[in-house]
Amino acid sequence: MFSIFPIKGFIDQIDGFYCDGVSAGLKPNNKKDIGFIYSDTLCDVGAVLTNNKFQAAPLRHYQRYENDFKTNFVLINSKNANALTGEKGIEDINTIFSSLKFDITNPIMSSTGVIGNRLPIQKIVDGANTFDLSSKNGENLSQAIMTTDAYPKACLYEVKLEDGSSFKIGAVAKGAGMINPNLATMLCFICTDAKVSKKDIEEALNENKETTFNAISVDGDTSTNDTVLVLANGKSNAYDKEAFKEALKLVMHDMAMLMVADGEGAKKAVAFEVINAATKEDAITAAKALSNSLLVKTALFGEDPNFGRIASTIGASRIECDENSLVIAYNDVVVFNKGEIVFDAKCEEDAGKVLQNKEFKIVCDIGLGTESFIAYGCDLGYEYVKINADYRS
């Protein structure tokens, strides 16, 4: 038995972890743009990375370490993704790390921002050399890694085990645009003092990613830099496999939901729940198609319960389906029932009220089996176009 409790605060409350963020001149107006995570004990590391074929230099640099390497330092920069920079992008990372004034072991770099530009090496080196590795300022770090995010994203939990021991686990993340269900676009850094092995970290990551980061969409685009990184320094000497897996799932779900809610210009976070599909693959395919559909997203933005767009998207996904077994509902308001249109004036009014909420679900009962899946998405409006039209400015 174990218990998991949420805690207010950032990853700096976890034993042995330190972090901060400063301005290195990458962003205008002296905004924070680089940050670090440091552990006073070497950490076991686990990660899942983007499936984009053009992986950015930081991801390729990470993958050149031996499989069982340990680290005590992560450097994160915003404003520049260091992607499409080839071997020179990796060399730039090595140059930065070799120019830092403090001792670090197998350092990891993570970047986010505009694709197609070399890193401003000297700015990053000068900024990073002002780091105080004894700082505990998770708020500064969360601000430093933001790009188009409207707000910082963080969570923290304490896990108490049956033998009286306990460990903490938390995360800091960024992500608001280029979010697609294929390891959604983000940088997410998860820290824990649990005494967990790399093998168990990766097992838990891979098990939990499908219902969290791989189940969300803002705009259907997958970035070159997507990274979910877990650092475990073992300082609590506490561990339970099931407790860790459950706590990690909570952390990953929290971060994924914050990203959807913060979809660039988004006003609504929506769960697309597909139930009674013929196969698990069908349920996943249909739910993700709905979370990705631009027509569905714009209807949500307009608070229009246009169930025809829902049905059309399911059909276009090519899963096994039949309109005579399909039921569509906004929360508990049924708008289409097994071939029968029940969308009268009262039904439309009730469904429209559901869409006025900031959070709700659209339930699609396929009626041909027992499999289900939930994907998460948001609306898409004018602000998204404005943000991305001006992204490089």
Automatic annotation (TrEMBL):
Pathway entry: Amino-acid biosynthesis; L-arginine biosynthesis; N(2)-acetyl-L-ornithine from L-glutamate: step 1/4; Amino-acid biosynthesis; L-arginine biosynthesis; L-ornithine and N-acetyl-L-glutamate from L-glutamate and N(2)-acetyl-L-ornithine (cyclic): step 1/1
Highest taxon listed in the record's lineage: Bacteria
Active site: T185
Binding-site positions, substrate: T147, K174, T185, E264, N388, S393
Reaction equation(s) it catalyzes: N(2)-acetyl-L-ornithine + L-glutamate = N-acetyl-L-glutamate + L-ornithine; L-glutamate + acetyl-CoA = N-acetyl-L-glutamate + CoA + H(+)
Residues under site feature: Cleavage: A184, T185
The EC number(s) this enzyme carries: 2.3.1.35, 2.3.1.1
Chief location: cytoplasm
GO cellular component entries: cytoplasm
Gene3D superfamilies named among the record's database cross-references: ArgJ beta chain, C-terminal domain, L-amino peptidase D-ALA esterase/amidase
Site (Involved in the stabilization of negative charge on the oxyanion by the formation of the oxyanion hole): T112, G113
Keyword field: Acyltransferase, Amino-acid biosynthesis, Arginine biosynthesis, Autocatalytic cleavage, Cytoplasm, Multifunctional enzyme, Transferase
Subcellular location: Cytoplasm
Biological process annotations from GO: L-arginine biosynthetic process; ornithine biosynthetic process
Molecular function GO terms recorded: L-glutamate N-acetyltransferase activity; L-glutamate N-acetyltransferase activity, acting on acetyl-L-ornithine as donor
Family listed: Belongs to the ArgJ family.
Quaternary structure (record): Heterotetramer of two alpha and two beta chains.
NCBIfam families, A to Z: ArgJ (TIGR00120), PRK05388.1 (NF003802)
HAMAP family: ArgJ (MF_01106)
Protein name as annotated: Arginine biosynthesis bifunctional protein ArgJ
Organism encoding this protein: Arcobacter nitrofigilis (strain ATCC 33309 / DSM 7299 / CCUG 15893 / LMG 7604 / NCTC 12251 / CI) (Campylobacter nitrofigilis)
Organism lineage: Bacteria, Pseudomonadati, Campylobacterota, Epsilonproteobacteria, Campylobacterales
